[in-house]
Amino acid sequence: MKKILLVCLLSLSVWAAESNVYKVSYNAPVDKVLENILAKFKAEMLVVAWQLDILEEFKAKGLDKKFGENFNKAGLTAVRTLVACNGKFGNDIINADADMMAYCPIRITLTEKDGVTTVLYVRPTSAPKDSKAYKSLVQLEKKVTKAIEDSMEME
Questions:
Q1: 85 in helix, strand or coil?
Q2: Within a domain: residue 96?
């Protein structure tokens, strides 16, 4: 009985964690997806404050040699991340509940494998619903996910 309960709890926690991550994949190289997202974010006043090519940074630090065959076992060809913020949302969140600034600025991660790029984003709506900043977090999430989806319609 305890084993069944443990399996159920583990399954529920995995499901909950997955539902807190926005995930969308495109049949396009990471450079193109990133270029489109950056252009759309700029148009939507989501200011990109920082970018990092994570996989290349790991290699530059020698982690590929240090970990050997355990390095990048997922076989990703690219991992990029960016940090962005919108001043209005940032200010609204600070004023309502400064602890919720953990969700703003936002972080987007892009991974590529076999020519398919996946965009990952921790949903701010995973924050406590009783937070005074929750309404702003919902609006921020809608703005970001719409910008990501609209970015791939640009050409």
A1: strand
A2: yes
